Amino acid sequence: MAVDQLSRAFVALADPTRRDIVARLSVRDATVGELAESYAMSMQAVSKHLKVLEEAGLVSRSRDAQRRPCHLEPRMLDLMTTWIERYRQQAEERFRRLDAVLATMDDEPGDTPEHPDHPEQSDRPEQSGQS
């Protein structure tokens, strides 16, 4: 179930408007009307974006008298962060291993043109067309 929910969250955040809504809700709770003021779209369109975010578990709504504020759900963001962090750590470990291999290659004798054993750096005089 967590994988399906994680997939829904990443799909929901693929849209720039929904990412912006999440960013706004990270600062403070807001109603649909308050959110709609920031966009060149109808309240209905903002509501549709919020519905996608709700279904993904990123946002929830509550009732406060006549007001229905939307809240960011940090639990889902934590799940996404944990998933991303695992793969970031794996990628960093691969890069560290690659760096170590490249460092040993730099230290091996005979691999650089400046080394005396290298043919281009021999003590023989250059041959011109004369014999």
From TrEMBL:
Gene3D superfamilies the record matches: Winged helix-like DNA-binding domain superfamily/Winged helix DNA-binding domain
InterPro entries: ArsR-like_HTH (IPR011991), HTH_ArsR_DNA-bd_dom (IPR001845), WH-like_DNA-bd_sf (IPR036388), WH_DNA-bd_sf (IPR036390)
A Pfam family annotated for this UniProt entry: HTH_20
Compositionally biased region (Basic and acidic residues): 112-131
SMART domains named among the record's database cross-references: HTH_ARSR (SM00418)
Region of interest (Disordered), ranges: 101-131
Domain HTH arsR-type residues, every copy: 1-92
TM region(s), chain numbering: none
Protein name as it appears in the record: ArsR/SmtB family transcription factor
Species name: Kitasatospora aburaviensis
Highest classification ranks of the organism: Bacteria, Bacillati, Actinomycetota, Actinomycetes, Kitasatosporales
